[in-house]
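Internal ticket #5521
Category: modeling
Description: The requester needs a full-assembly model to guide mutagenesis choices. All entity lines are attached below as received. Residue total reported by intake: 907.
Assigned to: D.W.
Attached entities:
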Amino acid sequence: MPADSSRRRLAAALRPGNAGVVYALVLIVVVLTATSAQLGRPNYLSSTNITNILDQSSLVAILAVFTTVVLISGNFDLSIASISAFSAATVLSLVSSMGLPLAMAIALGAGLICGVINGVIVQLVGINAFIVTLGTMTAVRGLVLIVTDGRTITAKDPAAQRSLITLQSGYWPSSYVTAVLGVLLLAAAAVVLLRRNRSLLTGGITAAAGVVLIALSLTSSVRLSKPTYYLIVIAAVTWVVLRYTVIGRRLYAVGSNAEAARLSGINVNRYRIGAFVLNGLGSGFVGVLFAAKLLAINPTGLQGTELTVLAAAILGGTSLFGGLGSVLKSVVGALILFTLDNGFNVLNLGANYQGVIVGTVLIVAAAIYTIAGRQRQVRGVRDSGARPVGSEDEPDSEKAEALR
Amino acid sequence: MLALEGVGKAFPNGTVALRDARLTVESGSVHGLVGANGAGKSTMIKIIAGAHAPSEGTVRWKGEGVSWRDPGAARNAGIATIMQHVPLAPTLTVLENVFLGASGPWRLPRTKRTEFARLLDRVGYHIDPDAEVSDLAIGERQMVAILQALATGAELVVMDEPTASLAEGERQVVFDVVRRLSAQGTAFLYVSHFLDEVLSLTDHVTVLRDGTVVEEGETAAYDEDRLVKAIVGRDLLAVERRDTPSVAAGVPALLAVRGLSSPAGVRDVSFEVRTGEVLGLAGLLGSGRSEILHAIYGADKRARGHVLVGDRTVRRRPRAAVAAGMALVPEDRGAQGLVAAFPIWKNVSLPDLSSLASGRMLPRETDERARAARAIEDLGIVSSGPDAVMTELSGGNAQKVVFAKWLYGGARVFMLDEPTAGVDVGAKADILELVRGFAAEGGAVLMVSSEFEEILAVATRVLVVREGRIVAERAARDTSEEELLMLANGFGELGEGGAADAG
């Protein structure tokens, strides 16, 4: 029975409705690799190119992780890119006089405060999150203009530049990471297999993945940039918190049915404000990394990034209605966007077509999720021969379900 | 004009909502449809409105057999249904709402204004055509809905609990309009819990009980007493009434409520529930019974007053209530009780998650599943297992999951809001047995139900609620369903309140 149920869970996790975004990424990479080989261009899957894609997507992917948390909680945040730009402007204008640690702390604090403002207005005053964060997006962008006085600002002091550069530049070989991950997976597999009521299947797959990773670390080595490592750590920690802790479970419950969560004794406001605060802090951190990367920010820097981030989250199957989403899939969503971007450059296909393709991919992805969700529901109802909860009086609930 | 013959309706999950039902509505008559919750009124209305197709029997409209594919077809044929929650477009004006279904290229042709004036004239009511619907009181919105129905040329207007949320003055306006229009030939099918309204307004009445028509006839032949008896029935006690032992006076109160009031419709409510006691709150729809529970639980932020569990005052928020050992099984399990995206095991563990978690932080999923499996076993939840998603479950089984949430977490004060609503008979008996068990194992239960039969089956004492107040208290063994229904309708021994409503 336990083996059976875990096998069913595994099968469910691998269904296109669930893991589609991963298949899509693999498909895109395969197509690009094949095309570039056909056209006689350098190997698309070269370690340099992989390093590049990961580095380019890391900042957006970090933002996508935190935005996913806000979306799961049942809210919406448009202000992230403005907050990042504000944080970048803050750190650049302060780093020469104060030194990096203090300037960075202030920049992160600024992001955090923006998050608090968003959360408090949305949850305690009760204004729609879209409106509130549209407002803070505009207002914080205004702050960026004030801080920069409408010009590009740079960190001129060489010492300050050096300290910023150490924050984000430099590459470490990934073999250590893959090796460590492989060992961890093997350990996890051992735990799974030694437990009384667990399946051979889960344990076997985990062990195999561990062996593959260790083999990878011995044979090949990709050098990854520091922001990529930041992304890996942030995504992994957030995923663990959402997947394995009480906080994560309650966050999903809050996003899925706030009233039921509240009547179950969960402090809904705390979770939702917390998500905004985390998003503000994360945006502040990304702003600092952005400043460290370019050593400059112009007043329109990062403008529009919030939409790329939302696109990544949607590609990852995150619901705009709350209660559904996975940070890892959002990261994959970000990778898809940047792989397409990179593919257009590498294959020299002309950037003009890019918007059309990316937009189409986004809508197709959303369509797949919607249809898969609807079919799953129909199947569930048909299997048991019973009607869904509460459907008798509210035919709308089914439609709402299908939208997720 | 409208005739239902031998109409039955069975739902795919096996619930038979209507069996061999008949109904005849003459033109120009106001026909009352009454029955307890779950008697099949809503199903019958939905069949008439074309929202459900009958599984058997025929519907005749003006002598011809019809089968409507959707509500629009019924509407075009001349049947307008006004639901309890009036579906109007709140940002449009009265005029625009009334002619919402009208075709034509322009938003507000001048002819519509004259038509509207004629309509008002016919109804004998005045309302500003340019007022925005969101600014109107609920009673006025009800009138707009009636006008809308008339504007589509309806010859039969079905009204489902039209006065449930109306103030006394507004009710009178609705009554006047109904009388006036029926005199002009429009037929009404009037569904209401309020028997005084049915008695004073209608000329024919049909009584439904357990999906069948038990009585029909001219309203003049009925008084409250006879109507109540017909609704309740004598022979069909689905639940056995057990002589519940009254709890000794010396037992301390487990839940004490002092001076609780809320703008949501709770007025100075005070009472106590002792350990081992099941206290029933009997009241009609809209009487404030659910609001009382929400106020006690702290879910209603605007409520003021004191709530004590044992001898400790509970802070007024759900989290504190849960920590103090209170449990709420809410009225609408889909919207308030369950997280639809979660499987059974995640729903069951939700209120008590930290005690199933290592270091109160990492949920032990094996234990959670084990608890869900135990709940499935204990409560007889029909499902494919702990991993079943909520959408797979029937109403009764979903309700058992809501109960299971509170079963193993040390809750002592159980507040149950319509625990058997939308639940089939078998599950109903299970749930009532569960309620008895709560009390027997040293808990205190506060149960709201509009099925007074149920309250009497499990409760030791009954409080009758009307207009947010407790208007009477009875020991369950000394009262009857009839008496409770009278009291809840305001036909008290003092003859105050509701008796005047009847005029």
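Resolution: model delivered.
Comment from assignee: Residues 2-174+222-347 of chain A form a domain with the ABC transporter involved in vitamin B12 uptake, BtuC fold (CATH 1.10.3470).
Ticket closed.
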